[in-house]
């Protein structure tokens, strides 16, 4: 009998729409898988079994009566706990929002429901999306299915781990500095950061408004493309949403699967390799570039000199915007409130609640951002960082005049051990060294598995970057490479389903 949890989203959709299996069967199989292994992985913060099964039954009725609501109708999904969900908790991995149930759906949530996608539940994440390991969650870390003593990346480690553990065939993440791509790289899955503004941010709890971007997570490039087309598109509720057609990502993924990249120019970014990169990561990347050349692509070395300043600029811009955005969590309207005994002033209640509700990393970034925005320092820090951001965008523009896409390793290392970097913020931040430039410029970027490192047998990611609104280029190149590379997740050790002690 076919194990429904091992099939791709595209395969499941085909079986559901032909009525070979029901969406209810598929959804129940994934809920059973969650029950079996999630005590070991902790990918989910909340599982909505009743809601998912009700949505699945509704899809089955729709298919029996006529056409499915979308190409992935009936295929269940895991949703990062940073998108608001009516009737379901949205915590952002923080005690500040523990047990908060929003009165409205994010646009992404609404589009998923309208597309007939059953939402299995909400996935674990670094608190307010601040982190690279999912260890900053107030509700405990998520573990990497490849090695339960290692991190699954962050901030969206719950979404990527749910895919690698076969708990969900599709997932949604957000990417502010690499939080979709970095977890994808270290779990052997696919993650895409669409062009900034390509997917609505309405109802996405804001960390850094000029950088945050929701996007698809999957086990195959085609699956990511199918999900991308469902959640993308202009939204009048989001002032940063782009009023332009969604790039033809599904068509590009299907064409790319033929494996022919003749005529495609691919730039290797000189500044995103070398010192500081794990030898096994570089070896996997070099093999991936050689494979792309064999598929017919022209390989060109490209210099983007200001990329080396991306990390510094990001850690001024993102904390500054976080300081502003998180000011709304003041204990006065919703969320955690402590010392509410009538004997304390509003200011004292606010201070005590924020002290109790925010974790160390969130406090660190709020303080850093508040300092960078303070009188006398704004131009020296935040203003200068924005100038560097412009230079990085210009580097991308110059590079894309020579090539169609850029490639690099997604992360400098494979998954590190739990606890290894929690007391060393700088080492933690370096995990996003290669992903941050695309966020600063607003370009589209993808991580696709490039095999396993010779050093430790853990997954490595190949990052592909494309110009804004040219997301389809990612999918063409990613699908061609994926077809030539072959499967990666089948090499993962089987989960035993026993709780970790």
From TrEMBL:
<keyword id="KW-0648">Protein biosynthesis</keyword>
<feature type="active site" description="Charge relay system">
    <location>
        <position position="80"/>
    </location>
</feature>
<dbReference type="InterPro" id="IPR023631">
    <property type="entry name" value="Amidase_dom"/>
</dbReference>
<keyword id="KW-0436">Ligase</keyword>
<feature type="domain" description="Amidase">
    <location>
        <begin position="25"/>
        <end position="474"/>
    </location>
</feature>
<dbReference type="InterPro" id="IPR020556">
    <property type="entry name" value="Amidase_CS"/>
</dbReference>
<dbReference type="InterPro" id="IPR036928">
    <property type="entry name" value="AS_sf"/>
</dbReference>
<keyword id="KW-0808">Transferase</keyword>
<dbReference type="GO" id="GO:0006412">
    <property type="term" value="P:translation"/>
</dbReference>
<protein>
    <recommendedName>
        <fullName>Glutamyl-tRNA(Gln) amidotransferase subunit A</fullName>
        <ecNumber>6.3.5.7</ecNumber>
    </recommendedName>
</protein>
<keyword id="KW-0067">ATP-binding</keyword>
<dbReference type="GO" id="GO:0016740">
    <property type="term" value="F:transferase activity"/>
</dbReference>
<comment type="subunit">
    <text>Heterotrimer of A, B and C subunits.</text>
</comment>
<comment type="similarity">
    <text>Belongs to the amidase family. GatA subfamily.</text>
</comment>
<dbReference type="InterPro" id="IPR004412">
    <property type="entry name" value="GatA"/>
</dbReference>
<dbReference type="GO" id="GO:0030956">
    <property type="term" value="C:glutamyl-tRNA(Gln) amidotransferase complex"/>
</dbReference>
<dbReference type="InterPro" id="IPR000120">
    <property type="entry name" value="Amidase"/>
</dbReference>
<dbReference type="GO" id="GO:0050567">
    <property type="term" value="F:glutaminyl-tRNA synthase (glutamine-hydrolyzing) activity"/>
</dbReference>
<dbReference type="Pfam" id="PF01425">
    <property type="entry name" value="Amidase"/>
</dbReference>
<feature type="active site" description="Charge relay system">
    <location>
        <position position="155"/>
    </location>
</feature>
<keyword id="KW-0547">Nucleotide-binding</keyword>
<comment type="function">
    <text>Allows the formation of correctly charged Gln-tRNA(Gln) through the transamidation of misacylated Glu-tRNA(Gln) in organisms which lack glutaminyl-tRNA synthetase. The reaction takes place in the presence of glutamine and ATP through an activated gamma-phospho-Glu-tRNA(Gln).</text>
</comment>
<dbReference type="GO" id="GO:0005524">
    <property type="term" value="F:ATP binding"/>
</dbReference>
<feature type="region of interest" description="Disordered">
    <location>
        <begin position="131"/>
        <end position="160"/>
    </location>
</feature>
<feature type="active site" description="Acyl-ester intermediate">
    <location>
        <position position="179"/>
    </location>
</feature>
């Amino acid at each position: 009998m076919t194990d429904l949890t091992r099939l791709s989203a595209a395969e499941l959709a085909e079986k559901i729409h032909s009525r070979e299996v029901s969406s209810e069967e598929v959804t129940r199989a994934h809920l059973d898988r969650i029950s079996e292994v999630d005590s070991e992985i902790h990918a989910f913060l909340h599982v909505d079994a009743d809601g998912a099964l009700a949505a699945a039954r509704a899809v089955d009725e729709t298919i029996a009566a006529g056409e499915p609501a979308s190409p992935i109708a009936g295929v269940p999904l895991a949703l990062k706990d940073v998108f608001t969900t009516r009737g379901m908790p949205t915590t952002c991995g923080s005690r500040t929002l523990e047990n908060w149930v929003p009165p409205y759906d994010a646009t992404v949530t609404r589009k998923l429901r309208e597309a007939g996608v059953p939402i299995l539940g909400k996935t674990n994440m670094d608190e307010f999306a601040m982190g690279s390991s999912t260890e900053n969650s107030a509700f405990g870390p998520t573990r990497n299915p490849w090695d339960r003593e290692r991190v699954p990346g962050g901030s969206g480690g719950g979404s990527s781990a749910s895919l690698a553990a076969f708990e969900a065939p599709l997932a949604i993440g957000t990417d502010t500095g690499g939080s979709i791509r970095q977890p994808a790289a270290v779990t052997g899955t696919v993650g895409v950061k669409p062009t900034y503004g390509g997917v609505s941010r309405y109802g996405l709890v804001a960390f850094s408004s000029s950088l945050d971007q929701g996007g698809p997570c999957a086990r195959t490039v085609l699956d990511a493309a199918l999900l991308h087309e469902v959640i993308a598109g202009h939204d009048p509720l989001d002032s940063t949403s782009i009023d332009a057609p969604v790039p033809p990502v599904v068509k590009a993924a299907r064409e790319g699967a033929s494996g022919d990249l003749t005529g495609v120019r691919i730039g290797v970014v000189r500044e995103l390799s070398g010192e500081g990169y794990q030898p096994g990561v570089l070896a996997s990347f070099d093999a991936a570039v050689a494979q792309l050349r064999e598929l017919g692509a022209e390989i060109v070395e490209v210099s983007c000199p200001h990329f080396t300043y991306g990390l510094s600029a990001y850690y001024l811009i993102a904390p500054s915007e976080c300081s502003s955005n998180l000011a709304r969590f003041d204990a006065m309207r919703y969320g955690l409130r402590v010392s509410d005994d009538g004997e304390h002033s509003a200011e004292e209640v606010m201070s005590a609640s924020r002290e109790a509700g925010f974790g160390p990393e969130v406090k660190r970034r709020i303080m850093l951002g508040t300092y960078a925005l303070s009188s006398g320092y704004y131009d020296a820090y935040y203003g200068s960082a924005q100038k560097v951001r412009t230079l990085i965008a210009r580097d991308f523009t110059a590079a894309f005049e020579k090539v169609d896409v850029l490639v690099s390793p997604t992360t400098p290392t494979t998954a590190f051990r739990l606890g290894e970097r929690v007391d060393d913020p700088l080492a933690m931040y370096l995990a996003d060294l290669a992903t941050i430039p695309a966020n600063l410029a607003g370009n589209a970027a993808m991580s696709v598995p490039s095999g396993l490192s010779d050093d430790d047998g853990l997954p490595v990611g190949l990052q592909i970057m494309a110009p804004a609104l040219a997301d389809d280029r990612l999918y063409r190149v990613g699908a061609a490479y994926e077809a030539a590379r072959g499967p990666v997740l089948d090499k993962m050790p089987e989960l035993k389903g026993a709780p970790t002690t």
